[in-house]
Amino acid sequence: MSRDTSIRRGQTLAGWTFVSPTLVVLGLFLAVPVLMALWVSFTDWNGRGSPFASGIGFVGVDNYRELVGEQGGLTRSDFMTSLRNNFFYVLLVVPLQTAFALFLALVLNQRLLKAVGFFRTAFYFPSVVSSVAISLVFLFLFSGGGVINSLLEVVGIDGPTWFNDSRGLFHLLGDGLGLWSASDPPSALAGSGVLGLTWWQWISGPSVALSVIIMLVIWTTAGTFMLMFLAALQDLPVEVEEAARIDGAGRWGVFRNVTLPHLRPTMLLVTTLGLIGTWQVFDQVYVMTQGGPGKTTLTPAYLSYSYAFDNQKWGVAAAMAFVLFLIIFTMTSLQRFLFRDKDAIATKRAARRTRKARANAPAGGAA
Amino acid sequence: MSTTATSRAKPMVRDRTAVWLFLGYAVLIFFAFLYLYPFVVQVTTSFKTNSDAVANPLSPMADPFTLGAFDRLFNTEFPLWFRNSVIVTLLVTAGRVFLCSLAGYALARIKFRGRGAVFTALLAVMAVPGVVLLIPKFLVLNYLGIYNAWPALVLPLLVDAAGVFIMKQFFETIPESVEEAARIDGAGTFRIFWSVVLPMARPALITITILSFQGSWNELPHFIIASQDPGLFTLTKGVATLTSGQLGSGNQYPITMAAALLMTIPVAIVFFVFQKYLVRGGTAGAEKG
User: Fold this and answer.
1) How confident is the model at residue A236 (pLDDT cuts 50, 70, 90)?
2) Can you give the pLDDT at residue A44?
3) Is the dihedral of CA B166, B168, B172, B178 positive or negative?
């Protein structure tokens, strides 16, 4: 028995020795930083000296109030603008990249198709290339006289100067539909607003410049998600689909009632990863637009960086980072809730109903 | 009636399959073009003159063909950035492979008190979004006095929680009898790990190596906040300055394309050689979820 405990003790020692380097690095560059930043978000530290020095002012939640309250002024409108931009970005990127990835996977999954490897490689390749390199290529593709505009010219379209165009897509869409004039917004929308932006500004949609980044990101990440869908599709036995076909289900029926339910866990994973990734967009903004034109490509991640490193407003910048963290956390929890297994819930509810009915039954019988 | 119907249905089904197949190829070829064309533009433009690039952006031929962009690129700090990236990538990759397999092995095989807690902590760590950590990481690097120094570039990247998971999952598939045999022979825990288990983990080790290589070679945000010393710029950070910095108004497309091309080549080589390992790593998360 004493030999057993000594072995146990030896195992514990070995175990902790093995994980300690990992824990030290993660603690030092992850846990400690978060705590430090939390402290800084409650101070007026300006980046010089130690944030723990005695002269540093503790300002309570003032930095957070500056982001959302009346007194925030420019800081608030910058932050709200960045949230608006990122919201429209997420709204377009997550559904589009998921649908596109699923589409590619479904096409690649056809049984008689040859050269699947080639196509899979082509679609996945951008995922492994540096975001900086891809951003540079897109800067050239979408430049004023670049590839895209030359292609558009061939079909007779006069392309925009993508990276200098701050017009919102929804503004343009409404203009096209005759709802309003983009150059002369209705005063009901432009005259009033909330949280430092007018209603007109809130509903702008992504700007033309931001939509280039949207296209870039969909193009880049769809490949990774395609692989995940493809892996899941290959797990689905061919016999199951064939059986459904024999039972008389059409292609669409098989897809809706057999394939799609089978893909549910992958769908959850892909949209969760998509949400987490899209709320963190930083590299492309840093390389391509630095928040311009007209602040329409500002994102919370980039704004927080630029407030800290360019403007030395560390407290506010740290507060932004925490708000962003909260947003990502809320979004993914909400999405998990929406994606919860409805069948399981329905079964549970049915069970509860039966139980209730059974409980009521004797009472009814007595009456 | 039934016989004619079935005899007619068969070729019809075959026809429809052929149509679907044709449609499939058409779609795939269209998208393959969409995916490869930007890289073709990147390669050809880097051999163009500046005026040729602006005047004929669509032309797949450089006319005249010139290495001028590469010449000018090598007169910038580009070679220094490349060297720095190589150093950082090698150190980070070596560190990650060693530390991830060490921790992964402990979590998979060593029964030690607190293992559950460590595992939970790792899960929590993976949930923290990276971009949120930019300012916090700067604060610590600055506080430790390593901001603007080599350790700041390398140390925070040394561990990757996802890598620990991949290794843990792999070690769990190795039969325990292998280790028991070694233990009976009197080998210690580290010895068993190093000489018995690790050599069996070759596929997982290659996956981690590729992922670490690609991750640290392409890393940008961390290098932005870890130093401002031009002598410590890595490729991503240095090349990002080409659009706004020393070369002016972003009108130097052949140079930026050449830079993008050169920084893509190492990753591309690794990608094509070790593709199957990379694909496996890319979907490793899918199996968990």
Assistant:
1) confident
2) 86
3) positive
DSSP letters spanning chain B:
-HHHHHHHHHHHHHHHHHHHHHHHHHHHHHHHHHHHHHHHHHHHHHTS-HHHHHH-TT-SS-SS---HHHHHHHTTTHHHHHHHHHHHHHHHHHHHHHHHHHHHHHHHH---TTHHHHHHHHHHHHHS-GGGGHHHHHHHHHHHT-TTSHHHHHGGGS--HHHHHHHHHHHTTS-HHHHHHHHHTT--HHHIIIIIIHHHTHHHHHHHHHHHHHHHHH--HHHHHH---GGG--HHHHHHHHTTSTT-SS--HHHHHHHHHHHHHHHHHHHHHSHHHHHHHHTHHHHH-
User: Does residue B185 surpass a pLDDT of 70?
Assistant: yes
Alpha-carbon distance A31 to A353, whole Å? 47
Residue in A121, A273, A318 nearest the CB of B275: A121
Average pLDDT over residues A344-351: 73
Handedness of CA B226, B232, B235, B240 (dihedral sign): positive
| Gap between the Cα atoms of A301 and A281, Å rounded | 7
CB-CB contact of B32 with A119 (8 Å): yes
ipTM of the complex model: 0.87
What are the start-end ranges of the E strands in chain A? 193-194, 197-198
Given a cut of 50, whether residue B289 has pLDDT beyond it is no
Give the single-character DSSP code of A56.
P
- Express each pLDDT in A27-38 by its tens digit: 999 889 989 889
Question: Which residue reads 């002369």 in tokens?
Answer: A184
More confident residue, A55 or B79: B79
The residue-averaged pLDDT of A355-366 equals: 58
Is A347 in the B-facing interface, judged by CB distances under 8 Å?
no
- Whole-number Å distance between alpha carbons of B189 and B259: 47
Four-residue CA torsion sign, B245, B246, B251, B252: negative
How many inter-chain contacts (A to B, CB under 8 Å) are there?
A: 279
* The pLDDT of residue A211 is above 50: yes
The pLDDT confidence band at residue B157, using thresholds 50, 70 and 90, is very high
Partners of residue B240 in chain A, C-beta under 8 Å = 132, 135, 286-287
Among A272, A258, A250, A341, residue whose Cα is nearest residue A90: A272
Share of chain B above pLDDT 90, in %: 43
pLDDT of residue B37 exceeding 90, the answer is yes
Q: Which of B155, B259, B286 sits opposite A269 (nearest CB)?
A: B286
Is residue A364 pLDDT above 70, yes or no?
no
Q: Which member of A23, A134, A150 has the closest CB to residue B58?
A: A150
Among B residues 103-162, those touching chain A with beta carbons less than 8 Å apart: 103, 105-107, 110-115, 118, 121-122, 125, 128-140, 143, 155-156, 158-159, 161
Higher-scoring residue by pLDDT: A223, B188? A223
The reported pTM is 0.88
Q: Bridge-partner residues for A194, per DSSP?
A: A197
For residue A43, what are the β-bridge partners?
Answer: A58
Residue B98 neighbours by CB distance under 10 Å: 15
- Length of chain B equals 289
Which is nearest to A208 in space by CA: A154, A152, A155?
A152
Partner A contacted by B256 (CB < 8 A): yes
Nearest to A292 by CA among A215, A214, A208, A216: A208
Tokens for A55?
Answer: 């002269």
Range of weakest confidence among A6-10, A297-301, B224-228: A6-10
Q: Which of B75, B40, B86, B119 lies closest to B267 in space, CA to CA? A: B86
Residues B289, A147: C-beta atoms closer than 8 Å:
no
Model confidence at B280, in pLDDT bands (50, 70, 90)?
low
